[in-house]
Amino acid sequence: MSAATLETVDLQKFAAEVRAMANAVFETPGYKRVLNMKLNRKRAQVYTLQKAHWNINRRDCWGFAQGHAPMDVKKMIWEHEEDELAGNKTRGVEDHFSLQVRSSAEIGLTPDDFRNEPVRAGTRMAIYSYLHLVNSGHWLKSVSACAALEVSNSAEWVKLGGMSYRMGKRFESELGIPFEKQLNAKEHAEVDVEHAHMLMQIAKRHGGAPGALNWMLEGLRESWELDGIWKGILADMMEEIPL
To answer: Into how many domains does the chain fold?
Structure first.
């Protein structure tokens, strides 16, 4: 991509639109229900176990996005997914799924709970929807659909902190679990700031192609639409549990 072509692209305007969309998702009914409902330990367990299936699906989605992307973006995704799948040896952090399983002992869950938890119908619908999204369009749309959830989990993009941080602080205030002991939430609150930078790096490298930023915005928008619905599904599951 030539520099002359990229000079015609308003990346500041693009970033401002992404920021507005990322903050707006927290005003959707599903997000507001999850973030405002009263918690007890059982509701936290339902949230955590079903979200574990969703998190595994994120690895699938990033894998498909990597397959569709050009070589330089494949490398970016490889580096991103190394944290998720293998952890960070430099910082002594294990893979993120293992972190989640281990830290969930704080709400009474065991590794067997994660192994035995069935995928509920609403979770399956969300998983299948994301798989279709990342396989049904331009590679920029696919990658952006995956990156959307890193952006809305980053304190650099959203005003009051991302979903991992907000739910972690709710577990702290309502369930008495210190945020520092919520290893997975704490890790995501930190690394997703760095992971979210990938979106703008891709925009700077590839945003000058005809229609590129439109593809990226479409992927972001549709991903956040699905995520708002998914949060409503989670809220339904949690509200089945009496306080």
So the answer is: 1
- Go through the chain and tell me how many residues it has: 243
* Tens-digit pLDDT profile for residues 27-66: 999 999 999 999 999 999 999 999 999 999 999 999 999 9
The gap from C-alpha 163 to its chain's centroid, in whole angstroms, comes to 8
Range of the domain at 108: 3-239
Q: For the segment 128-147, what is each residue's pLDDT rounded down to a tens digit?
A: 999 999 999 999 999 999 99
Place of tokens 């210190």: 178
Can you give the pTM of this predicted structure?
0.89
Whole-number Cα distances in Å, 25 to 70, 188, 237 = 29, 18, 20
Supply the CATH number for residue 35's domain.
1.20.910.10
Q: Which of 188, 214, 187 is nearest to 203 (CA)?
A: 214
Is residue 22 within 8 Å of 224, Cβ to Cβ? Answer: yes
> Are 64 and 131 within 8 A, CB to CB?
yes
